[in-house]
C-alpha cells in the first residue's frame, strides 16, 4: 500500500470516528433530565397517608367519622396540587437535516482546509520528523527518485532538499550533496536556523574538496557556531578546522568546550582529552619555536 493511499485511509477513518461521536448525539431526543412531576409525587404521598389512615382506623385509633373527614381533606389537597401543576414542555425533536448537513460538511471542511493549508503532494513522501536537537531525520521510506520527483514540483521544500543531500552524502556523492544542502538552506528559513544542517553542509563541502575544512567549509562551521555556540558537532568541526590550519590554541579551545558536554569517564571523553593534551603540547612547541625564530 502506498503512503498516499494509507494517508487518505487514515484521514477517512478519523473523520468517520468524529462523525460517530457527533451524529448519535444530534439524532438522540434531547429530553430534559428525567424527574417525577409534582402530581405524581403528591399522588404517592396521598397513597401513603391514606394507607396510614386506614391502618389507624383498623387499629381503632380513629373513628369512622374522623377517617372520612381526613380522607376528604387528603383528596381536596391532592386535587388542588394537581390543578396547580402545568404540563411539562415537550422535548425538541431531533434535527435530521442538521445531522445530514454536518455529515457532509465536516469531511468537506476538513479536506478543504488541508488542501488550502497543507501539502497534498507531500502525503507520498515519508514522514519528516525533528530530533530533540531540532535536526531533520532521514526518511523511513522513499527513494532518491521519489525525492527528485517531489522537488521538481516543490522546489521550496527545504526539508526534502536536506533528505536528498543526506542520501547523496551517504552514497559518497559529495558535490551533489553539497549543492542540495545549499538549496535547502536557501529554500527554508527553518532549515537555515538549524546549526546541525550547516555542519552537514560543511562536511559535504569539505569532502567534495578532498576532505579539507579549509576555506568555505570553515566559514559554514562558523555560521553553525553563530547559531548555536555549544553545538557539539560545530565545536568538533571548528576544532578540526583550526587544527588543520595549525591554530592549535583555537583548536584546543573548541575541543575543551565540547569536552565539558561529554559523559564523565566515557571513552569519547578520554579520547578527546588526550587529543586536547596533544594539541596543547603542539601549541606550546609552536610558541617556543616562534620565540626562537625571533
Topology:
Elements: H1 3-27, H2 38-58, H3 64-84, H4 96-117, H5 144-153, H6 158-170, H7 174-187, H8 189-192, H9 195-208, H10 216-227, H11 232-244, H12 248-259, H13 267-293
Helix pairs in contact: 1-4, 2-3, 5-6, 6-7, 7-9, 9-10, 10-11, 11-12, 12-13
Structure description:
The protein is mostly helical. The chain has 13 helices and no strands. It has helices at residues 3-27, 38-58, 64-84, 96-117, 144-153, 158-170, 174-187, 189-192, 195-208, 216-227, 232-244, 248-259, 267-293.
> Helix/strand/pairing class, anyone?
mainly alpha
Low-pLDDT runs of 5+ residues are 29-37, 123-134, 136-141
Continuous helix count: 13
Range of strand content? under 5%
Largest sheet: none
Instruction: Tell me the helix content.
Output: over 70%
Q: How widely separated are the two ends?
A: 74 Å
Q: What's the shape?
A: elongated
Radius of gyration: 41 Å
H and E string: HHHHHHHHHHHHH
Total number of β-strand segments? 0
- Mean of residue pLDDT values: 76
In short:
With 294 residues, this protein is mainly α. Helix content is 71%, strand content 0%.
Q: Tags for this entry?
A:
mainly alpha
